[in-house]
Amino acid sequence: MTNHAERRASLLARMEPGSVAFLATAPEAVRNGDSEYPYRHDSNFYYLSGFTEPESALVLVAAAGDQPARAILFCREKNPEREIWDGLRHGPEAAQAQFGVDAAWPIGMLDEKMPELLAGAPMLYCRLARDERLDGQLRRWFDAVRARGRTGIVAPPALRDLVPLVDEMRVVKDTGEQELMLRAGRISAAAHRRAMRAAHVGVFEYELEAELLYEFRRSGAQFPAYTPIVASGANSCILHYNVNDRQTRDGDLVLIDAGCELDGYASDITRTFPVNGRFTAPQQALYEIVLAAQAAAFDAIRPGNTFHAAHDAAVRVLAQGMLDTGLLDAGKAGGVDDVIAAKAYTAFYMHGTSHWLGMDVHDTGAYRVSEHPDKPSRPLAEGMVLTVEPGIYVRPAPGVPEQYWNIGIRIEDDVVVADGVPRLLTDEVPTAVADIERLMKERT
């Protein structure tokens, strides 16, 4: 079970003594008219609190002298009438007991209590310049404290952005987080297998999307982690395609990039397969290159290796494959080192190989020792979770062999950095050509 109190204690230990941290959850968002989008809490807020209701905030007060550290939750009060319409609320009393905070107060008391908590604090940690509504609240709270200046009470003289501190805490996943992400990966893998079995010539992209969403929800996942990409034919060469309305044709490849969110944690899988169940020779040639690039990237994921080592390994395999197939003219592009130095491979592979994965699909954390582009890539450590997603995308163009036109391939899996080989979270959906073709014979 996740211990949110330990996370709060870890953050409090990083804060200046006597300082205050404030973090609000995400607001509800109107979709249209009086209809709202399905509510999703703020990731950092949930990471520290475990609380999923809207209209809530968390305040941490660091220990100072003989004053112990405190965690205070602000949340909605119990309201029987609103609960008839909107569902049950914890209320402050139950929230304090269930979520292990030192105190819980009604959210309506926020403007009253915050000036009291800020008075005399040496620093306030909060989101800086990210939320106009919060910026307005901060001004009101600081004005209320400053109004008492003649009594010797002062407002915090320093502000610090809270987000980078929490972001770095989230980079390494504990055992509980890893197991939850494994469950999410298994659900997403089952959804991809279902879509492969449901595929046939003439199926619409949205029909395959429906198979994914059905499997997500029936297996207990609350949401898709992002809008699914179901891209057939030429659409497979559009990296973030999500219209999902084309009818497939014989000979098409289908690229599906989709993952579920389970209890606040995301999965992220991409598979590419022939809608008729059989790869053509050109499709298989490019597919095998991408699969080999992914294997090379896996081999580079070790504690102590840099984050970008997996990308570098994948690019070397992809570049050689582009030369071997004639996607790049060796007479013009030169050898593999020349292709990499000139970044000629970006004509067919224009994105990175990995990103952090966790509560957000593109999860928090720096990719370099410093975010300055001249600084070195960040070393990997056990417990980090990242995707591995090489690809090749071939659009019609002069000098490009026509047999490869409109072929887009991406293969993506989620891995945990571990001592020895990385731990694969998404291996329950096949990647080998023979295994994909065998699975697709099991048509629904």
TrEMBL record:
Keyword check for Oxidoreductase: no
Enzyme Commission no: 3.4.11.9
GO molecular function terms noted in the UniProt entry: manganese ion binding; metalloaminopeptidase activity
GO BP terms in the entry: proteolysis
Entry keywords, A to Z: Hydrolase, Manganese, Metal-binding, Metalloprotease, Protease
UniProt keyword annotation of Zinc present: no
Domain Aminopeptidase P N-terminal: 1-135
Cofactor annotation: Mn(2+)
SMART domains: AMP_N (SM01011)
Cellular component GO terms held in the UniProt record: cytosol
Catalytic activities: Release of any N-terminal amino acid, including proline, that is linked to proline, even from a dipeptide or tripeptide
Source species, domain of life: Bacteria
Similarity comment: family membership: Belongs to the peptidase M24B family.
Protein's name in the database: Xaa-Pro aminopeptidase
